[in-house]
Amino acid sequence: MLSYISKRLFLGIIVLLGVAVITFTIARVIPSDPAVKWAGSRATEEQIEAARETLGLNDPLPIQFINYIKDLLKGDLGYSLRTHQPVAQELKTFIPATLELVFISFIIAILLGIPLGIYSAYMKNQLLDHVSRLFSIGAVSLPTFWIALIFQLIFYNYLGILPLGGRVSTEITILYELPDITGMLLLDSALVGDWYIFKDALIHMILPCITVALYPIGLVARMTRSALLEVLNEDYIIAEKSYGLSQNKILWVYALKNTIGPTAIVVTLSFGYTLMNTFLVEAIFSWPGLGNYVATSVVTLDYPAIMGATIFSAVTYILLNLLADIIIALDPRVRL
Amino acid sequence: MKNIINIDLIKPKIKEAKLSLYLLKKDKLTRIALYLSIFLFILALVGYWIVPYPQHIADEANSINKLQPPSMEYFFGTDELGRDIFSRVIYGTRISLITGLFSVGLALLIGIPLGAIAGTMGGWIDELIMRITDIFLSFPPLLLAIAVVSVLGPSLQNAMLAISLSWWPWYARLVRGQAISLKERKFVQAAKAIGSSNFKIIFKHIIPNTVSPVIVQASMDIGGVILTIASLSFLGLGAQAPTPEWGLMISTSRNYFLNAWWYSIFPGLAIFITVLTFNLLGDGLREILDPKTRKN
After folding, report:
1. Residue A303 forms contact with B (CB below 8 Å)
2. Using a CB cutoff of 8 Å and minimum separation of 24, what contacts does A292-301 make?
3. ipTM associated with this complex
């Protein structure tokens, strides 16, 4: 198993290197002249030349690439064209808010998706099963940014029970100092025991989290269903049935245990897609996360910033793939 | 000559096709999706001629009637320039279907040859091509597209190009798997024995035989691709005003939606229905054509 994991690690490193080649190509080779963009629209010849020197664009491409890799290894993602600040530093302030959103959405997805999947496997080809199929396909077909607007329309505009967006109410940002330990506001306010801020932050999370969770709920439910259907035909389940164990015990204790592997894998692998949904949702709920950062960067075509976010997402995705591989390896039934 | 066509090989295929047709008849949801998708294609073809205000598809402003709620005159209301949203949404079908089909087509053009080469040649060429697909697959698809478009400049063409660039690896993988099993088949071995070049084997014998599973997969992907294009347009990286693209319309509607709900609702519904149709069709086709799920 150790050799298997080390082989996956090695492949992961190769893929990471490939990711660097692609991002380098997009950021340095395709643009006609990054220095012009860097210097701004009213720059003089000298200023553009100076920018070219700062960005290292006068070096031959292979040297530029080696420098690029060196910078990446140091965690240096270059400078934003818009703010001229280091991209890595900017990302650091935006990432926790996004992770907070993704984590909570996944918790919702698991809490709702697994029971939904279990019941639709149990009631295969009955009404609930059809509803869950329609729901999960529907959830993948929904434009996330649109459903977010609809939620705002209903819960803010018509019912007036939930806030329009943001992480906390404006008066709280003015009157209180927000705790900043991990950057995840919900966790931080709980850590310092400030329940007033905690409650406000929680209310602000409801709409964005539900919007983001829709897709993984459907996915988890479908995966649990199909894994469970496979398990329910196994001999040991039939044996348990013939011993007279209750249906609930078989379903929730013995059968479910063996579906956790495939479901866990799907959950890790759907992270990439969920992250993308988060990106679109953040812009609508003015959530100060990575997606909002990318959306703002998109407007100004600030591609170093976009590349930085891309590299971060790709690396996270590769690591999660690795995790999924390790989960597979931990299953004693799998021979490697 | 009559031995060239082996009846025993074809018989189960005919039986298979009959069974699939029977299952399609039984699966109501998939059948509805099939009819809906045909309807959408017809709408895309004739949309321009049946909408009440074809002049509103372009930029013609009519600001006296701006942001009117839905009425008998304007079924879906009007936008901030007084244009009929119904006409624009209907015409948008053409834009979404065409861009969706083109993006998938381009991805197929890249993915199929690469996958076929990898599967047929094997060895280091296979390793190389597959590692490249791994690399492309490790980017979240929308984000790679965002990165590419932000460098190339925002436009519908660039958005399509960017999406194909992030979609082809799936087809390469699929075709590679097919090619690996095809290359052991007798007709390929025979072609090899008479000295056909690798090029000829790949393009004349392998690729034509991978077409059907690839078509099924591609039809399943169209929904996702249309959604991605709409997302790019929503971010301002796809279609540009005054194109009546659904994602772009929702993006513009954000400035008005608290007072004009119809402006956001209808283009979004159009995206949802279109994508849902193709996804249901794809899901149904998979259930029907895959012997594994069929048993259940």
Report:
1. yes
2. A292/A94, A293/A90, A293/A91, A293/A94, A294/B143, A294/B146, A295/B235, A296/A82, A297/A80, A297/A82, A297/B150, A298/B146, A298/B150, A298/B235, A298/B236, A298/B237, A299/B236, A300/A81, A300/A82, A301/A37, A301/A81, A301/B150, A301/B153, A301/B154
3. 0.84
